[in-house]
Specification:
By secondary structure, the protein is an alpha+beta fold. Helix content is 33%, strand content 15%. It has a three-stranded antiparallel sheet. It has a three-stranded antiparallel sheet with strand order 4-5-6, with no helix packed on it.
């Protein structure tokens, strides 16, 4: 294509005929005439719900990976920025219990895909708590305007019809609970909606991607003891002998024999009447269930963005493991950095900015800075670590910081949502 043709747009399309109409996103190839659809042929066996994700997060392997993600992502950190603003936020971070809040952000993001926090103001101080949300008993709807912008939320929750007034003088059995549905209206400014790995405006749960693997792993582990028992403990009972070969066990006799010999290994001796004998059959070949389990566990590692080398060295040598874990371009450290940047943006934009503006620090910037060295499996200076969370520190005043940033009007923020669920909750 010549330079002039590019300027005047006279180049002809190379992938379509003139005056055609082409629908995008459709398979126009002629190679498959009678293909199948995966969603119809091999649909998901496990429903992809938050309830199932939370159950799967209790699997020992999944729980271990999530805990490792959280503890390494929420590593040593400190605050940097205007000295006065840092000193003020230092106190508020302790009141918010920010370390725990960061842990909750990451856990809820990885398991549920997103979280909802009610935010309200009392005496120019920002207070937050997590809204109850499980998409079943506690549900939340986002409300959009005609331009596709979020304008508010509706929360369907459960509350106790009885109040707890006078609980100090009541006996244990006098405290009652009878739940009823309640709809709560929340303005956009009343809610922090954190979306993990956001795609098309929705958060993505990484646990949801391994629900099938967790199901098959748990099913196979449940079969393992029964398989071993059956292959090693089958007893053959014979009734009759050369002198009386016609005698047979009645159904009642058979059931009794099964009951007696099923746990023969727990008894010192078994006594049978004349003409009845029992022997342990030689076990068959056990299926290689551990190998299948190892394969499924490898799938879980992949689905949760975690190299196996984090927990085991069986799958790779040390050099390969170091690349998988600590490489600044391909290692797991990049995934942990995403977790940090995700919570950093939420905290700075939703909490720090509002808290500072309400208390005379308009335009002053404060950043939360994580120690990137702590993300590595083998940090270069382990002896310098002062613990999982470094004491919050402040740096000198930035004389170039502007005092002219717009004040965020938050007078319409209210404490409305209900935060009762089985998960951790912050109310500060």
């Amino acid at each position: 294509m010549s330079f002039l043709n590019r300027i005047f747009g006279r180049a002809r399309l190379k992938n379509a005929e003139p005056n055609t109409v082409e629908e995008v996103g459709q398979d126009t190839s002629d190679t498959v005439r009678h293909g199948i659809d995966l969603v119809d042929t091999v649909p998901f066996k496990v429903n992809r719900t938050i309830k199932n994700c939370r159950f799967a997060s209790k699997d020992p392997q999944v729980k271990g990976i999530l805990t490792d993600n959280i503890t390494k992502s929420n590593s040593e950190w400190h605050l940097e920025g205007d000295s006065g603003a840092v000193e003020y936020l230092e106190k508020r971070c302790k009141e918010w219990n920010l370390n725990q809040m960061i842990d909750d952000y990451i856990f809820k993001g990885q398991v549920d895909g997103e979280f909802f926090q009610n935010i309200w103001i009392v005496d120019n101080k920002v207070h937050v708590r997590f809204l109850a949300f499980d998409a079943e008993n506690y549900r939340i709807k986002r409300i959009y305007d005609e331009f596709g912008e979020v304008v508010g939320y509706k929360q369907l929750t459960l509350r106790n019809q009885y109040t707890n007034k006078g609980w100090l003088s009541k006996k244990f059995d006098e405290l009652r609970e009878s739940l009823e549905e309640l709809t709560v209206t929340l303005q956009k400014g009343d809610v922090i909606n954190g979306k993990y790995l956001e795609r098309n405006g929705k958060g993505q749960s990484i646990v949801m991607d391994v629900l099938e693997d967790v199901y098959y792993k748990r099913t196979m582990k449940a079969q393992l003891p029964a398989t071993v028992h059956k292959n090693a403990n089958i007893v053959q009972v014979t009734m009759g002998n050369d002198l009386d070969s016609t005698k047979r066990l009645t159904q009642e006799d058979r059931d009794e024999a099964i009951r007696i010999v099923s746990d023969y290994h727990t008894k010192g001796a078994l006594i049978f009447p004349y003409g009845v004998s029992a022997e342990v059959l030689k076990g068959g070949t056990l299926p290689d269930i551990p190998s299948y389990l190892k394969y499924i566990e490898s799938c879980i590692y992949v689905g949760l963005n975690t190299p196996e080398a984090v927990f085991t060295s069986d799958s790779s040598n040390r050099a390969t493991a170091d690349i998988q874990l600590d490489s600044p371009t391909t290692g797991r450290v990049l995934f942990l950095q995403y977790n940090q940047e995700w919570v950093k943006k939420i905290i700075e934009d939703e909490l720090f900015r509002l808290e500072l503006d309400l208390n005379g620090f308009e335009g002053k910037e404060v950043k939360i800075v994580f120690n990137q060295e702590q993300l590595k499996t083998n940090p270069d200076n382990q002896e310098d670590s002062e613990g999982n969370h470094k004491q919050i520190s402040k740096k000198g005043d930035d004389s170039n910081s502007s005092d002219n940033s717009a004040f965020s009007d938050s007078s319409n923020r209210n404490k409305n949502g209900v935060g009762k669920d089985g998960n951790s909750q912050s109310d500060t």
